[in-house]
Amino acid sequence: MDSFLRDLTYAARTLRKAPGFTLIAVLTLALAIGASTAIFSVVNGVLLKPLPFHEPDQLVRVTTTNTSRGNRNPLSVADFMDYRSGTTRSFAGMAAFDGGSYNLTRAGSEPARLSASRVSANYFNLLRVQPAIGRGFVAGEDDRGAPRVVVLSDELFRGRFAGDPKLIGQTITLNGEQYTVIGVAPRGLAFPDKVDLWLPLSFSEDEASPSNRGAHWLGAFGRLAPGVTVAQADRELSALAKRLEQQFPRSNTNFGAAVIDMREYMVGNVRAALLAMLGAVGFVLLIACANVANLLLVRAAGRETELAVRTALGAGRLRIVRQLVTESVLLALLGAVGGVLIAAWGVDLLKAFGPERIPRLSEVRLDGGVMAFAGGLALFTGLLFGVVPALHASGAQVTQALKEGRGSSGRPASRRARSTLVVLEMALAVVLLVGAGLLLRSFDRLLSVDPGFKPEQVVVFEVQPPDSKYQYFRLRNLVTDLTTRMRTVPGAQSAAVVFGLPMGGGGMMRTSVHEIGTPEDPPGQRKITDVATVTPEYFSTMGIPLVRGRAFADADRLGRPQVAIVNRELVKKYFPDVDPIGKRVEIGWTTDTMPNSPEIRMGGEIVGIVGDTKRLNLGEESVPQLYLPFDQAAIPSLNIIIRSTAEPTAVIAAARTQLRAIDAELPMYNVRTLEEVVSSSVAQPRFYTLLLGAFAGIALVLAAVGIYGVISYAVSLRTREIGIRVALGATREQVIRLILGQGMALTAGGVIVGAACALWATRAIAGMLFGIQPTDPLTFAGVAAVLLGSAALACIVPARRAARVDPVVAMRVE
Fold first, then answer.
1. How many Cβ atoms are within 10 Å of 745's Cβ, its own excluded?
2. Where in the chain are the domains?
3. CA–CA separation, 801 vs 467, rounded Å?
4. Contact 392/297 with Cβ under 8 angstroms?
5. Residues with Cβ within 8 Å of residue 753, at least 6 apart in sequence
């Protein structure tokens, strides 16, 4: 221990005597360790940490699977009930949930729109979660007609209700109805999503009817019985789904079921991307290590006499190596201290700009595990970049070093080591730059995709009229008032209302469509379409082109002949050889879900064809879409769209005033421009592109610094040789070409090795690319040009310095 402390003290004293070297090395390592720690903290928080529930490995998601399309879907109510009652051997319990939102109104305060989860009464018990205050739901509270109760989130309780414990047992007004507050959830509960409150989920007779098995909208999760594995539960549930498929062929053909580990279900879509980012930052760390190792090799040249003296006085080679490695580890630990500070800033940055679709991102912290990772990383890097220079420095011949008094960097082994490190840096930089280039070109192609509408100068917001106040016919009048008043806001050109805003997050409602008068589609082969309900000015307000026929008119009202408009993709897929105009279609839902609404089978005569719009994001393929007039198919979930030449802030303020004049209890929420809607749909690819681009930029700078250092030091070693060449008639241009050639040869070697590695490594991001292949030759060629150009710029300074060598001075120095 005493020996180690002496080594550490000597290392600190030695590094203090070389402040320039120490500062550069520590900053390089701090940047690399900080970036690595920040990304690892995200990977740890999102992928590795167990869910914050009791025995989380027993929690699973239950989904429907479409065996013909290979995708997962929510459940129908009838299927959920059969799954829950038919799998008691595998499950200790199963619960359902559905998202929603409610208007909170309180005397003396602005109305607010709150996000909610409607859940089965056993929700909290299955999660093994105890409310922080009060209680959770009990059996029977999710029955139809049971008293209305609600559990609040901790954030809502402490924010809007000031954490008043007297609220328990009191009532609050949601959607115009009274709900008794029975509890407050523990802080941080965010399953399946972060919401403001939880309410019991009850099913109507119509929802639970076997005839509605085709309506897939219900989420479900379960807790496995003791000793049961995910695979065993999946087999039992799949067998049950197979029996239901045989029993109900019309609705359940090609529909199976799956049991998926809860954490895997939550993070499966982002796992590959996050691991790719972790691999990328690992490359940055390796480049930093190679850079510092090169610095140590150069520095060792100036210390060769010192080390030779120590060897002559009896220090063994192992003792010299240990001292030098101690210095390396101390450098790494200093870098780790700076790295933790950078990581803390980086984590906050990632959380602020990271897309919402990365689950659990808000929970990421620099906890003890992450700090231990940073410390282990420092020790690993200290050994990684310290051992090779230490072995080279300790291997010098004592007699020769004492006689010559010059650095061993002139020795062939040291030159080869430095050159190898530069080639390694360049190769790693190529991999990162190719990955960043591919993502950048992919993102550029994604942004060039036409969303199918014109998002410029359009403001959109949502309003959710409560069923208790706005029944079917009153809802239609509300929509008329909204569109009329919104046309009066500053600069308004047009206004419309839609249920099913494209790229709005929830998309449109998806259901079956069938041409009236033709044979029923066989089970499992139903024609599927998205459905939106819109007011007449919707297409002109959105800028969706009318291809053929006509748009909706004010005359297309309830009581008049039903009409519909379809998009080009629906025509292409379901009417490939006939003119759809004049055809009559019906879809798989009715208007009877609204209070006091007429039970009408929805559909009508196709009167127009419009262009395709993207459903959720720019990268998806077009899907069939069908539009119905809002007056004939009113749904109480409204997106109000205003196209205006005025500034969005002025439009929003005026729209809020107009909404308050209609109904002061209706909150305006989810307010944004249509350009922001489009931008948010590409938030995830933008985030990964910027992140990998930042890593690639750091790698490029470090690689350029590395090649500069090697060439610069090589020039200092070859001063006498260059002087002789000049004395014998070598021109300035010839000397520059000589030095540049050395640097470009190393760079070319790194580019070749890196390109070969990139051909393999870029397969890891293939799933993140849009419209481009991982082996895109233009990207590879561009990266090679950038690296060669950067290396040339890095080499030109030492090359010009070499060209100015005075032969007389060079010979006198030697």
1. 12
2. 69-253, 276-338+374-447+685-813, 465-665
3. 81
4. yes
5. 423, 426, 427, 430
Q: What is the mean pLDDT of residues 247-276?
A: 88
Which range among 100-114, 215-229, 632-646 shows the weakest confidence by mean pLDDT?
100-114
42: tokens are 């995200």
Phi/psi at 730 (nearest 5 deg)?
-65, 135
* Nearest CA-CA partner of 267 in 54, 46, 57: 46
Using alpha carbons only, give the angle 644, 645, 650 rounded to the nearest 5 degrees: 75
Which band of pLDDT confidence, cut at 50, 70 and 90, is reported for residue 2?
low
pLDDT tens by residue, 208-247: 777 778 778 899 999 999 999 999 999 999 999 999 999 9
Closest to 7 in 3D by CA, of 261, 326, 311, 465: 326
DSSP state of 791: H
Neighbour-count burial for 400-433, b at 16+ CB within 10 Å, e otherwise: ebeeeeebbbebeebbebbbbbbbbbbbbbbbbb
For 137-166, b where at least 16 C-beta lie within 10 A, e where not — what string?
beeebbeeeeeebbbbbbbbbeeebeeeee
Work out whether the CA dihedral 53, 57, 60, 66 comes out positive or negative. positive
Q: Cβ neighbours of residue 155 under 8 Å, at least 6 residues apart?
A: 187, 196
Q: What is the DSSP letter of 523?
A: T
Residue pair 257/236 in contact (Cβ under 8 Å)? The answer is no
Asked if 288 and 32 count as a contact pair (C-beta separation under 8 A), the reply is: yes
What pLDDT, on a 0 to 100 scale, did the predictor assign at position 414? Answer: 67
DSSP string, 568-586: HHHHHHH-TTS--TT-EEE
- Write the secondary structure of 63-103 as one string of H (helix), E (strand) and C (coil): EEEECCCCEEECECHHHHHHHHHHCCCCEEEEEEEEEEEEE
Write the DSSP string, 263-314: HHHHHHHHHHHHHHHHHHHHHHHHHHHHHHHHHHHHHHHHTHHHHHHHHHTT
Helix (H) or strand (E) holding 379: helix 368-394
Assess contact for 339 and 374: CB atoms under 8 A.
yes
| Reduced 3-state DSSP string for 475-503 | HHHHHHHHHHHHCCCCCEEEEEEEECCCC
Q: Which stretches of 303-367 are DSSP H helices? A: 304-312, 317-353
Q: In whole angstroms, what is the distance from residue 309 CA to residue 402 CA?
A: 8
Q: What is the DSSP letter of 45?
A: I
CA distance 388 to 165: 65
* Residues 6+ away with beta carbon under 8 Å from 645: 457, 491, 493
At 212 the pLDDT is 76
Choose among 615, 631, 638, 482: nearest CA to 563: 631
- Looking at the predicted structure, is the pLDDT value of residue 393 above 60? no
Q: What is the pLDDT of residues 687-714, one digit of tens each?
A: 999 999 999 988 888 888 888 877 777 7
Residue 131, Ramachandran bin (φ over 0: left; ψ between -120 and 50: alpha; else beta): beta
pLDDT on residue 593: 46
In terms of phi and psi (left: phi > 0; alpha: psi -120 to 50; beta: otherwise), the region of 194 is beta
Global pTM value: 0.83
Question: For 643-664, what is each residue's pLDDT tens digit?
Answer: 999 999 999 999 999 999 999 8
pLDDT score of 116 = 94
Most confident of 133-142, 243-252, 373-382, 798-807: 133-142
Rg (CA), the chain: 34
Q: Which residues pair with 531 in a beta bridge?
A: 509, 626
Residues 740 and 799 sit within 8 Å (Cβ to Cβ) = yes
Instruction: Provide the token pair at 406.
Output: 């010059």
**Integer Cα distance of 503 and 484 in angstroms:** 25
Helix axis angle for 719-727 and 732-761, nearest 10°, is 130
